[in-house]
Design brief:
The radius of gyration is 17 Å and the shape is globular. The chain is 28% helix and 24% strand.
Length: 112
């Protein structure tokens, strides 16, 4: 943990959420230190058991993941879980590569 969190809304950024042990432990610490809320942003939602139960029972307000991996059916009903599609971004990148264009230009316009 870096910085003072008392009285602040906090965000945990991670590459993936697998069993959710790390992010739920971190959320517990942040709340103990006085954070107002905890949100998690991760690229990949592996969501191996018991991830869904841990997330649901935790103080985490929201978990935001990309659909880089198949999302388990039971996870789609979880109120705290939000899944963002990266399909159009990947499609644009593949198109740029296919026509030998700049992939970097995809990120010059409006971002997600």
């Amino acid at each position: 943990m870096i910085g003072k969190v008392r009285g602040r809304h906090t965000i945990i950024v991670d590459d993936m959420v697998d069993t959710a042990g790390t992010v739920t432990s971190a959320a517990r610490l942040l709340m103990k230190k006085g954070a107002l809320s905890v949100r998690v942003v991760a690229t990949h939602g592996v969501l191996s058991p018991p991830a869904l139960e841990r997330i649901e029972e935790s103080s985490i307000k929201e978990v935001l993941i990309a659909n880089t991996l198949p999302v388990p059916e039971e996870a789609l009903g979880l109120s705290k879980l939000k899944v963002l599609s990266v399909a159009s971004l990947f499609a644009e990148a593949l198109q740029a590569i296919f026509v030998d264009s700049s992939v970097s230009e995809i990120f010059l316009g409006e971002n997600l």
